[in-house]
Specification:
Elements: H1 3-24, H2 29-40, H3 44-69, H4 77-95, H5 104-128, H6 132-151, H7 186-203, H8 205-215, H9 217-222, H10 227-254, H11 265-275, H12 280-303, H13 309-329
Helix pairs in contact: 1-13, 2-3, 2-12, 3-7, 3-10, 3-11, 3-12, 4-5, 4-6, 4-10, 4-11, 5-6, 5-10, 7-8, 7-12, 8-10, 11-12, 11-13, 12-13
Length: 341
Amino acid sequence: MRVHVRILASFALLIGALILTLLVFRVPIGEGLRLIGQGAIFTEAGWTRSAVRSTPLVFVGLGMAVAWRAGMYNIGGEGQYVLGGLAGAASVSALGTAATWSPAVPILAACAGGGLLAGLAGVLQVWRGIPVVISTILLNFMVLPLQEWLLQGPLQEAKGQIPQTDRLPDSAMLARFDPRFDLHAGVFIAVAAVLAMAVFLYRTPAGFRLRVVGLGPRAARAHGISGDRVRVWAMVLSGSLCGLAGGVDLTGLTGYLGTGFDQGWGFMGIPVALLGALDPVGVFLAAVYFGVLVAGCENLARFADVGSPIVYVVQAVAVLVAVGLQHWRFAPKGRAEVELG
C-alpha cells in the first residue's frame, strides 16, 4: 500500500477513535466535534491554544525521534523536560541580574540540564551495560523528588510560602504577540527545531552516522563508525530537545516553576514520535494533531456535561491508536519483504 494512502487511513482511524470515544461518553457527535473545533481551530483563542499545546510536543517528539533513530529508546522525556525547567529557573536565580537580559540564558540552561540527564543514561548503557529504557525510567523518578525538594528549598520563592520559584523578570520571558492569548515566540523556535533536525538527520555526515548506527550497528562498526560515541551524543541531543521544551514553557508560558509544571508532555512525546515515524516533519504533524486534540478536549470538558476525565480518555485512546498504527505501518508484508512506510 502506498505511503499517502496509509497516512490518510491513519488519520481516518484517529478521527474514528475520537468519534467512538464521544459515543462512549454519550456526547452527541455533532456537538462534541463542534466544541472541539471551537476550542482548537475555528477561533483565534482556539488555534493559538493549539499552537501552544503543540510546542512542547514538537520538542519532546524530536528528542524521542533522534534517540530512537540511534537505537537508544529514551523513555525519560518527562524527567528531562522537568530538569530543563529547573535548570532554566536555577540559572536566573544563580546569575541574578546578569541572566535577566535575555530568555536565551534560561533556555540554554534548560537544554544543558536535559542533555546532561539523558547523556548520563547513554553513558550508563555504553559503559556499564544498563539498558537506557530502564535508566531513563528510573531517572524520571529521581527528578520529580528533586523538583519537590528544590521548590521547597533552594529555588523557593522569596517569601517561602508557596512551593514554587520566583517569577522570571519580563526581560527573560519570550515575546508574546497578544496579551489576550498565550501564543509566544517559542512556537517559531519549535518550527526552527523541526527544520534543523530534518537537515541534521538527512543532510549532514553526523546525521547519516546516527541513522546507520540505529539501523545496522554491525555495518557501522565495519565502516569505522564509533557506535558508542554516536549513541551517547544522540542521547545528549535528545535530552537537550526535551529540556528545551521545559525551558520554552518556562519562559513562554508560566514564568515560574511550580509543582504542577510537569503536565505529561514528556510521556506524550513518545507516541508523537512513533506516529510521526521518527521523522522531523512527521513528528511536527503528529504534535499538531495531539496539540489540537488536547486544546479541543479542554474546551469540550468545559462546556459539555462530561467533566475533565474525557480529556485524559481521549488522549489515552489516541495514544493506543497511534501505537497500533505504528505497528501496522511497519508490519511485514511477508516473510521476505518488509514495507517501511
